[in-house]
Amino acid sequence: MSARDVFHEAVKQALIKDGWRNIEPMTLRYDLTKLEIDLAADRFFAAQKANTQIAVEVKSFGAPSVVYEFHQAIGQYVNYRMVLRRVQPERIPYLSLSVEVYERAFKSDFFRDSLEEHRVNLILVDALSQEIVTWMPKPE
Amino acid sequence: MSARDVFHEAVKQALIKDGWRNIEPMTLRYDLTKLEIDLAADRFFAAQKANTQIAVEVKSFGAPSVVYEFHQAIGQYVNYRMVLRRVQPERIPYLSLSVEVYERAFKSDFFRDSLEEHRVNLILVDALSQEIVTWMPKPE
Fold first, then answer.
1. Dihedral sign, CA of B59, B65, B66, B68?
2. A with B: how many residue pairs have Cβ under 8 Å apart?
3. Residues A78, B118: C-beta atoms closer than 8 Å
4. Are strands A33-45 and A50-58 parallel, antiparallel or unpaired?
């Protein structure tokens, strides 16, 4: 498996362990355009007595240029968010990356400031233990 | 020259014909990150008695997936806009593409709605005549 696929599988397993179900790739249609999002998932939260739905774009940041892949991730995220708002407004968009990439490669203010400015929801995953480390923010 | 370079040259020539000067690639530094923007340019507008500065990201949309390249373009644009606002707030960001791509490949509402939602300034260029067809909006 490629590094991308290995991390993709880690995110899937981490979501399963966290109680999420129906984890599958997702296709959105918007006018003439078809958009493929890495993972859809849903989970029942007893406190809210409601089903929560998320759409997760997974980024391994294995490309030679972290900055280049980051531009791509931000573009996909804001475009998916726009489309979700119009076709599935109840589904919350997330970007998932490994906590190791976030701590090692995203040291520059550029990344943190862009994630904040563009209001990107994050799921940080430990790629080795295949567990979710942090939700920003929690999807309950 | 690659299709990308041919179109890049067309945008440069179109800007020269339109009275822009000092047309050069541009490097922005933001904390630890270096960002390369395709073209910076400036022009004196007599009516305003002022020098107007722009930063132009050029996209040929020659990749196999227009949607993929579009995500990349949107991500670069919003990131460059954020950085410009903080380090060169007087410089106006633009995305440049050929009028032919805009009319042929961007027929789906997805593209037009995303450009509007993300408030992207556009320069549409005729790649053959190397002339600017439309500014949206004009940078005066």
1. negative
2. 85
3. yes
4. antiparallel
Q: Is B71 on the interface with A (CB under 8 A)?
A: yes
Is B106 near chain A, with CB under 8 Å?
A: no
> Distance (Å, rounded) from C-alpha B62 to C-alpha A124?
34
Mean pLDDT (10-residue bins), chain B, 140 residues = 88 97 96 96 88 96 92 98 97 97 94 97 97 93
Contacts A107 to B, Cβ<8 Å = 32
Residue A67 near chain B (CB below 8 Å)? yes
pTM for this predicted structure? 0.95
CATH architecture of B3-136: 3-Layer(aba) Sandwich (3.40)
CA torsion B76-B82-B85-B86 (nearest 10°) is -120
Q: What is the ipTM of this complex?
A: 0.94
Q: Take residue B64 and report the two structure tokens written for it.
A: 């196999």
Q: Give the residue extent of every domain in chain A.
A: 3-136
Query: Judging by beta carbons within 10 Å of its beta carbon (0-12, 13-18, 19+), is residue A119 exposed, middle or buried?
Result: exposed
